[in-house]
Amino acid sequence: MDFPILSLLIFIPIVGSIVVYLLGRVRERLCELASLVITVVVFALSIYMYGSLLTSKEGASFSFIEGPYSWLSGFGVDYYLGVDGLSASLILISSILSVLVVLGSWDLITEKKPIYYFLILLFEGSIIGVFCSLNLILFYVFWEIVLIPMFFFIGVWGGPRRKYAAMKFLIFTYVGSVVMLLGFILIYLFTTPNTFNIPELVGKIPFWVQLLASAATFAGFGVKLPVVPLHTWLPDAHVEAPAPISVFLAGLLLKMGGYGFVRVNLGLLADASRQYAWIFIAFGILTMFYGALVAMVQRDLKRMIALTSINHMGFVLLGSFAGISASTTQAAVYGISGAVFQMFNHAAAIGILFMLSGYIHEQAGTRNIDELKGLRVGMPKTALVLILGSLAGMSVPMYSSFLSEWMVILGAISVNRWYALTVLIPILTVAYFLWMIKRTVLSPLPEHTHYHDLHNRAMVGLLLYLVPLFLLLIFPSLLLGIVDPLSLSLYQAAGGGR
Amino acid sequence: MSANIVIVDYAAIFTVGSLLVASLTLSRRAAVRQNLAFYASLAVIAASLLFTLFNFSIYLASNSRPSYTNLFHEDPLSYFFALTVQIVSLLVMLSSRNYMWGDRNLAVYFSLLLFSTLGMVLLSFAADLLMIIVAWELMSIPTYVLAGLRKDNPFSNEASVKYFLLGAFSSGILLYAISLTYGLTGTTNLTAVLQALQASATHLDPLTLLALALFIAGFGLKMSVVPFHMWIPDAYEGAPTTISTFLSAGTKKAGFVVAIRVFVVALPFLSTNWTTAFAILALATMTLGNVAALTQRSLTRMLAYSSIAQAGYILIGFAVATEPAKTLALIGVLFHAFNHAIMQSSAFLAAAAVDRLTGRVSLDSFASLWRRMPITSFSLAVSLLALAGIPPLNGFWSKLVLFTAAIQGDMAWLALAGVLNSALSLGYYAWVIKRMYIDEPVGSMEQGKIEEPRVISGVLLAATAIIIVVGVYPSLIYDLAKAAVLALG
After folding, report:
1. Which of A315, A469, B162, B166 has a Cα at 20 to 30 A from A205?
2. Is B401 on the interface with A (CB under 8 A)?
3. Which residues of chain B neighbour A150 with C-beta distances below 8 Å?
4. Is the dihedral of CA A276, A279, A280, A285 positive or negative?
């Protein structure tokens, strides 16, 4: 490898964002096109990166390493990048969603376009930075930059209660982040050698530091994932955010929490994670049930989808911690790989649902499930996409989301048979999705109601979200090929399987 | 170059300059008076800034050892602070081109600013308690006048009187502390004080502790440490906003440098006493500052309380300025002092621009300001985010160093309090940003775009650039601060 592909992945969007802004000042259409070009370039690069990782089967160790280049000398802060199976799959989905979000925004965003696309690209670059930083402070820097665009997205382009939602989002996530930072400082100070570099820290952190740091980082990752009871910002943020931004929020921002749990808790704080896995698992199961049950009673379609996303992310917590504390290698790989797989699938599945809810809101003027009636007759294309998307949300076996939930539950059962109760979750999910479809799609169309249906480009843009889900159902090894080795090595590094 | 020669040069540059500027009041033509006063003061401050940079780089390049005379130290610490306060002075003077323009006493204004800056520079170099008090007064007295420069404005008068009374009080306390120290050790030179106290057992004397407490109170008044902070919000609100900038970003920093000299250098063996005191003061200062800032309705008052809170973060560094965390803690103090000077200048000067053009600083009038004053809004937003400690802006790095030092110095609770306070502070900083960028204008507020004052806009952009550059490349200042701390020994 000659050129610094990871730095390019981060800085093409960040530098591009300024170009896009300036172009947008000249003509608004230009910034839409330029953003598409930049996100497609990033997508191509990430495919290249992912492909070479997949062909070399090096998911377990870091590849494309850049650095460490000293950033704050004598303080352990380095510019240090690298990808393994976990990072690569999340970077891939980030670049996919960015392209689709830009496409969707063409229809749904009409105001202040230059600054909007500026922030979209800033978001993309920094979230890719989160996923490939190998230095905890570098990770934290990108982690915090992500907040700024999101705050403005919700606050400027959001719905009626956008100001409240934006402030709540900012305060919640920032409090979580600074407490997490304390955990990082603890790790730095009490580990020999003093360093923030993740690869050098593996297996060297004393147990008591692991315990304290787990508690501190739980605040940061738990708010982002989100874990019930730290989730209350999420429904508000989602309901107020414009649809494309909800896709980013659920598809990528929540993944930062999941990524943190796997990278830091499973990778660095492995002893504490193994010993106290039950606490995390309990939170995971609570989150799943809470999300599913509360989603059931929602009237607002978007709020329902937001809670589905809480429900789905609970699987990540369950899978990763069941995996690390499993007694057999097989179960561990099922659990951890299932969790990573679930993150990938959830991003795509929730993406189509959120984007669609935006279109529905625009076409029908409401997102209230009780008021949306007769979509089958009124807007047949929308109804079709809604059903296809809901099937992805339900994790039926026509999409890979089925595989990932199945893997997580399988991994969990082999840790403790009582975890089998989590099979109730997919059942509940199916129940509320079908109920929603019954009320909206299958109800009679009220008289004097005229809906506009989706136009074809929008429909293609939406169906594209489902492509990775189909592909991965048929060829799961496209993802598991690099994630499984990682799960195995995490499990073995944590002292499992001996 | 020996310390005395450096000081003589500074004194010459500033004194001649400020007398020259002051004599311009004699000129009858207002335009001449204003322009000449402005350019002459700029020339003075630019010359002394270049002189500092030149000497500092020679000093660092030649690996000199700190040089001492009876009255002055020449070491990286003094250069570091001299540089910081002069940058602040420069920013303040430039902004005065727009903010104070048309004032009758402009020549006096600039002349007093120069004198006060000289006081701060001398304070950075001072190594003798008597020199410290002289420089302290030279720094303070002009600012009493400056705070009350708007004679016909009752708030300005109130600010001045309140500030003067408490300032005089703090000088008195300091003098008392110094006379006690002299009585105990027979000397006023800091190095000699250290030796005298080490040689005898007098440091167990209750009088020594009294002197220590008085030093903390005396410096605390300038450093805006709770419970000596009461004058701050009123003074900052009533004084011309450029002067508030000068007080908050400039003279306050001078308080920190003498505190380092006195506590860390001269009284290290009393550290168990002063570290505990500073830990408690740090907690009280940052918490009270942040909580009070949350409830403010005017930007200048909010920034005043935020400035108190920031002093609290710096005090964390003092609280752990003993082994094993001494180096890191002092680096944090210097680094955050520098960053705070820049961030606070930027925020206050943005407030000055808004005040000058719209006549209002109440937070409600900031609604959708970005349409009317895009440059000011942008700089204000960046400086507020930096003050909150959002990476990759400069405030994040210095807070990171301070909190790390706190944990290293076995005061993890202080670090926890610090990060929670940072989170709390984002509440009001983000609130202003929300006002500027998200809220719609209320009622009959004017909507038209305002032509932003050129010089202040330039100053704001320069400060924003420093914030971002130091944020992206923190080693720039971190290494200087480290050199300064290591030279202290």
Report:
1. A315
2. yes
3. none
4. positive
Express each pLDDT in B404-452 by its tens digit. 999 998 888 999 999 999 999 998 999 899 888 888 777 666 667 788 8
- The pTM is what? 0.93
B397 has a chain A CB within 8 A of its CB: yes
- Mean pLDDT of the A130-143 span: 94
3-class DSSP state for residue A226?
A: coil
Question: At residue B342, what is the residue type?
Answer: I
* DSSP alpha helix (H) spans, B186-324: 190-199, 206-223, 231-238, 241-245, 252-259, 271-294, 299-319
Please state, in angstroms and rounded to a whole number, the distance separating the CA atoms of residues A440 and A384.
12
Residue B437: which of A75, A145, A156 has the nearest Cβ? A156
- List of chain A residues whose C-beta atoms are within 8 Å of the C-beta of residue B407: 182, 185-186, 189
Which pLDDT score, from 0 to 100, does residue B202 have?
Answer: 56
- Cβ contacts (< 8 Å) between A71 and chain B: which residues? 474-475
| Structural contact between residues A301 and A356, judged by C-beta atoms closer than 8 angstroms | no
DSSP string, A17-55: HHHHHHHHHH-HHHHHHHHHHHHHHHHHHHHHHHHHHHH
Amino acid identity of B82? A
Residues of A in contact with B404 (CB under 8 A): 75, 185, 188-189
Q: Which residues contact B332 (CB under 8 A, 6 or more apart)?
A: B314, B316, B317, B398, B401, B402, B404, B405
- Helix locations, A379-423, DSSP H: 380-394, 400-415
How many CA atoms lie within 13 Å of A280's alpha carbon, on the beta-carbon side?
34
Average pLDDT over chain A reads: 90
Q: Residue A135's beta-bridge partner residues?
A: A197
Dihedral (Cα; B366, B367, B373, B378), 10-degree rounding = 80
Of A152, A178, A189, the CB nearest to B404: A189
Q: Does B415 touch chain A (CB under 8 A)?
A: yes
Interface of A with B in 357-416 (CB under 8 A): none
ipTM of predicted assembly, 2 dp: 0.91
pLDDT one-digit tens code per residue, B328-371: 999 999 999 999 999 999 999 999 998 888 877 788 888 888 88
Q: Nearest CA of chain B to the CA of A235: how many Å? A: 20
pLDDT tens for B73-128 read: 888 899 999 999 999 999 999 999 888 887 878 888 999 999 999 999 999 999 89
